[in-house]
Amino acid sequence: MISFKIHQLIITLPLQILSFLLLGLSTLSTKGADRITFLSGNELSGKILNITDTGSVQFLFEHAKNKAFIKPSSLNRIFFDQSSSEAPPKHHQRVGLINGDILSGDILSFDLNTLVIDPWYSAPITIQRANLSWIKFGILDASPVYSAPYQPDEWINETSAWEVEKKSFKSLSNGSITLKRPTPLNFIVRFKISWQTTPNLRFYLCSEFKNPSEQSDRYSFQCHSQGIQYSRQLFQDRFVTKALGKTPFNPTDYPDKTIQVEIRVDREQNIAYLYLNGQREDIFLDYYPHPPQGDYFIIESNHTNEHEHQVSDLSIYPWDGKNHLDESLLERQEPGDLLLEHEGNQYLGSCLGIVTQNKQSAIALEHPFSEEPLFIPLEKISLLQLKERNNSSPPTAPFIFELSNGGRLLLNKVRLEDSQIILEHPLLGPLSFNRKALKSMTSTHSK
């Protein structure tokens, strides 16, 4: 047996596999295995057997029958095996706790004292209302229909005006680049714009033809120093461009010369929502019948300088026309409980919980202008933000777990078993999760 040290990692192993590990730390197969990444940049794959209260990890190497205890000071992140023949069920409700944790599950009950959710990965969980921050309804975890890495041969670049890289597009001169991709009826398109001096870009959505100069039925999103304009181009008696709305935009307000754009297009309702850096800025109504149906997405630069523009993080998602939640609402401190509908209506009052009204599940809300409680069906609700009732500082914990469905948990203690993980949560107490629910873990012991 021999003990050795690699970047503060202490392992005791037989001498015959020492050379194997030294040569293979960064190249081991990770299919069907847990994976550990280190602050040094190295990686190991195998089976995580346990995690101690101090953050040490008991680890079984993938290609050896030897166990090791890995010190937390060397760890960067742990990734749990996510390979499975079946995708886990998806829940359409998600709850946020006062310490920032997020859980998903079907809501079984909700009253003045507690909320009970039923996740696929554990037995029902009871949450004290004082520990609740918000509840989201109608969550749709959609996969993108287009995202990075980008392939040059996917894009029509006839004038060579753009350079296509794996995660971005750089303008070489004025001109356009076009993607032909079937787009869902309702969709979300996200991208980041960067510029050297001043932006002057136009994006065409749902275009019938591939070139900007062609007279096509489509939507147009233009961003330049005078502001942002969202338009509809179509044939009436002649080809026209009709502005659906203008949004103030001053490039000097963005010292890093970068802005994140999100456009949510609902072609069933003829409406679009514009978000800039995560904040909803505008709503555009298309008063013209028959929305555009084309499959071309076009990026056009109207600046001659090389590398003047860069477009990155482009992705397109299907959208159910709901859940257009302004995330900034989660940071607001209201004098009461705030309920937001998908259509944008807001109610401020006192939430009594979930009741059954006319054979429909609904939130009962006492409203200051109504003698009787309001009953809002769950299917109409996007967000319920609860008034803060716990004035104490949210507890912290040494372990941060990311869940495979997008949730997050801070944990005090962790014990791994074959298919289960036994947890101790600072607000929820003891829990037992299916191991497949865990995506990754970081530890404050390594900070």
Task: Describe the fold and architecture.
Helix content is 2%, strand content 51%. It has 1 helix and 38 strands. With 447 residues, it is mainly β. The protein has one helix spanning 18-24; strands spanning 2-6, 9-13, 34-38, 43-51, 57-61, 67-70, 75-79, 93-97, 102-104, 106-110, 114-118, 125-128, 132-137, 155-156, 162-164, 168-171, 175-180, 186-195, 200-207, 218-224, 227-235, 239-247, 258-266, 271-276, 279-285, 296-301, 309-318, 337-341, 346-357, 360-366, 374-377, 381-385, 399-403, 408-411, 413-416, 420-425, 429-434, 438-443. The strands form 7 sheets. Strands 6-5-4-3-7-38-33-34 form an 8-stranded antiparallel β-sheet, with no helix packed on it. It has 3 domains: 1-83 and 395-447, no CATH class; 93-140 and 324-385, no CATH class; 152-318, Sandwich (Jelly Rolls), CATH 2.60.120.
